[in-house]
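Researcher: Re-running this chain for the archive, since the previous output was lost when a drive failed. Same request as before.
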Amino acid sequence: MQSMHELPIAKVEDATVPLRYAAANIPFTFLWGLPGVGKSTVAQKWFKLHGIEVIPLSLRNMQPEDLAGYPKPNDKTRTMMFYPPHWLWTALTSGKPTVVIIDEANDADPPVLAAAQRLFDYFIYPDRLAAALGVSEDEKDKININNVHFVLISNPPGVSLNRAALTPALCNRGLHFQLITNPQKYVQFMRRVDRFNEFPFLLNPQKLQIETHEEEFLTRFEYPPIEVAHQNYITAKALISSFLQAQPQYTYQYNPINLAYPTPRSWELCALAMSIHNPLDLEAWSLVASAAVGVEAAAALVAFLQDVRIPPIDEILRNPDILTPLLSPERPDIASAIAGAICEYIKSLNAEDFDAFIHIVYENIVAKFEERFLADVAEKIRKAAAEMALKYNLYKLASKIVKGGKRQ
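Model: Regenerated structure tokens:
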């Protein structure tokens, strides 16, 4: 990460660290970071995972009344109050811990920031809130201000639009953390997490519930079946992970002048776009990677992939010996990419096909890795097989796989 974007605040490589404070007892937590590092995505997922209600907002697209409410006169008291925005009333009355994630926090117009300051003052001085919103005595019991915390997410100064700076008074009321990209952790995350079904897929009939023209669409545009696309995505992700492990400098290179530049988000998009291509098609890689991460990173990736030869899974099953010349302790990245493809194949098997796989080729494949002093990579395949054995209630088999034993 470029030093010009470093802030003199706490640095974290794991976004969940500051989120723990927000969930516990800190009303305002600021999370700063360059575009594409996963600030908003991680925050929303983490809070939802822990049963905390999430209300996402974007200051860039808001008007002052969207935050502080719409002004209204009180004829009885001859004072001005505000109709609260729906999200605020929901947060105050939900009865559950709620985190309001305010994205693009310092990219708002000055009047919106002024409204945000007024809103935050209500939470700093809670006795003002009920009066400002015109809440009746009967409704006061519905409000629980202590259940609502705010996480403000922003790019560092010089990166964001910077229409107006956050006020010193507001900044001084929260904890500030900057999310720093760790290439090694990102590669581990990319290998481990399968987010294929999180994307709105035109090819996925379960997502869109397409009743007509689906077959015509797939045939006309020569898209692969959704199962093949998913496997292509997994393989593409494994290859990208291997590349980034070998050349971590390409994990993140902020350069908005190039429009397309490497970030965790853009590498994910690259793997997603490659799902409709053969993952060994270098021309497709060159096109898609150039579109996702820019020409320079794409050229480095394609040059790397020219040295990576992953046979189709059916060829590996027919003849595991073809793995021997491909596996080397000097190139664990290639071995990991091959193992990733094998693991995903194992996870796709039904009970009958899994049983056949274990009987016929499993031990032979694992042995190829172990013979080449890649036992740690072989362990990934063993773990995937053990998980599937447990899925199909084959407990004795799972135990033998974990111990490295053969099925009798």
